[in-house]
Amino acid sequence: MSYSLIFTLAFAAALVAGLLVKFWLATRQVRHVARHRGAVPAAFAQTITLAAHQKAADYTIAKARFGLVEMAWGAALLLGWTLLGGLDVLNKLLLVWLGGGMVQQLALLAAFAAIGGLLELPFTLWQTFRLEERFGFNKMTWKLWLTDTLKSTLLGALIGLPIAALILWLMGAAGTLWWLWAWGAWMGFNLLLMLIYPTFIAPLFNKFKPLDDPTLKARVTALMKRCGFAAKGLFVMDGSTRSAHANAYFTGFGASKRVVFYDTLLRQLNAGEVEAVLAHELGHFKHRHIVKRLIAMFALSLAGFALLGWVSTQVWFYAGLGVQPNLSPAAPNNALALLLFMLAVPVFSFFVAPLPARLSRKHEFEADAYAVAQTSGADLSAALLKLYQDNASTLTPDPVFVKFYYSHPPASERLARMT
After folding, report:
1. Which candidate, 223, 224, 279, 212, places its Cα nearest to that of 248?
2. What CA–CA distance (Å, rounded) separates 167 from 337?
3. Which of 285, 278, 286 is nearest to 375 (CA)?
4. Which residues sit opposite 210 in a β-bridge?
5. What CA–CA distance (Å, rounded) separates 215 from 396?
6. β pairing state of 248-251 and 208-210
7. Please, which residues have CB within 8 angstroms of residue 165's CB and are 6 or more apart in sequence?
8. Which among 70, 148, 281, 366 is annotated as catalytic?
């Protein structure tokens, strides 16, 4: 049996197994949430109404069912691009039209992204304008959606094509250790994005204004001072123009760090609750969760580039995924290797997804504990309950689904540790 056939069988088996596991998890979630829809859990009976509990259940079930359809479509597209020869056909058409070289490779990446985006567009529109609209979360107009889409596409081309061209050039010019140089370029690019995102990119999509509530500002500033955290500014973002969901986050890197509150968050929480939510975010920094995640990203991406450096030289890698590699030195396979690697890795890495999810939940517990030590545990509990209710997050998720997917612990587990 040839290596390419073995790889084809392994890829197909991993894809089918992953689909079966996803389907099993989603149906477990739907059944579990539906089974507990009729009554608010006893721990929340005094704070959450039955109507709010049932809305969260219905929203969770609707998202899970939509996810099943989206999952099936995604699997069909993946098969179409790989084993059914879609990427091979696209590559050969562009070779005939453009010949080999950098232009053809960039065109392949761009065409793949454009076609993939168009094929997934109906699901994006349905989720925004039907599913989110149905539950009262969507605030985006068609005009705003179109403007955001055009901006994202243009920004993606302006940022993505240059870094893609650099990596493709390194693949062809930096020798057998090209993957190490490409990894360094990719990490530098990501750090640069973290630095410029708050000041130059985020304002293209949202409006940011300084926090002008003097009482809240003084409270937040005092909290940050006693926690030893410095930020460039406190800002309010017009999240309500797109969604009713609420949030707060830190963004930026180094001196460009800033605190951002959604306007929806400030409308829903009082000053003490906002302070508690911010203390939770500060807990992530205090426990160096951000640094740890960056280090993990550095290590995983290094391993990924090293693996790509090896498989990109293996004919079975291309043939096993339905692509005939280019045999002419004038028409390198670098863009093909990048795309195939991008398509194949999620199929195999899906099975280790519970590990980072578990680590993320551990970090959330640590951040909660820090917030309770710095502010009022009652305020944090009240804030979390309001956010769970306003975001229609179910209070009764399936335990197995939680272990596999949830990056944040369920409300019952978080609140139990605060009492």
Report:
1. 279
2. 12
3. 278
4. 235
5. 36
6. unpaired
7. 102, 106
8. 281
Spatial CA neighbour of 169 closest among 77, 103, 244: 103
Q: How far apart are CA 375 and CA 273, in angstroms?
A: 9
pLDDT of res. 305: 97
Question: What is the number of other CB atoms lying within 10 angstroms of the CB of residue 238?
Answer: 15
CB burial of residue 190 (10 Å; 0-12, 13-18, 19+): middle
Average per-residue pLDDT for the chain: 90
Residue 179: the pLDDT is 96
Q: Taking a C-beta distance cutoff of 8 angstroms, is the pair 94, 108 a contact?
A: yes
Residue 11 confidence (pLDDT): 96
Which is the catalytic residue, given 88, 132, 273, 368?
Answer: 368
Look at the alpha carbons of 167, 173, 176, 181 in this order and tell me if their dihedral is positive or negative.
Answer: negative
Quick check: 259 and 250 in contact, CB under 8 A? yes
What is the chain's percent helix, strand, coil content, to nearest 5?
75, 5, 20
What separation in angstroms does the CA of 8 have from each of 78, 82, 342, 410?
13, 10, 16, 39
* β-strands 234-237, 258-262 pairing: parallel
Helix (H) / strand (E) containing 325 = none
Of residues 164, 67, 56, 40, the one with CA closest to residue 110: 164
Strands 234-237 and 208-210: antiparallel
User: In the chain, what percentage of residues exceed pLDDT 90?
Assistant: 61
**Which pTM value belongs to this model?**
0.90
Give SS3 for 236.
strand
DSSP 279-309: HHHHHHHHTTHHHHHHHHHHHHHHHHHHHHH
Q: Is 132 annotated as a binding residue?
A: no
220 close to 274: Cβ distance less than 8 angstroms: yes
Give the whole-angstrom CA distance, residue 414 versus residue 43. 12
Contact assessment for residue 244 and residue 134, using Cβ atoms and an 8 Å cutoff = no
pLDDT digits (tens, 9 = 90+) for 79-132: 999 999 999 999 999 999 998 889 999 999 999 999 999 999 999 999 999 999
Q: Which spans in 375-410 are helix H? A: 377-390, 399-405
Tell me, yes or no, if 366 is annotated catalytic. Answer: no
| 368 has catalytic annotation | yes
284 is in an annotated binding site: yes
Hunting for tokens 């985020």 — which residue is that? Answer: 202
Per-residue pLDDT band at 252 (split at 50, 70, 90): low
Enter the tokens of residue 1.
Answer: 């049996």
132 burial (CB, 10 Å; 0-12 / 13-18 / 19+) is: buried
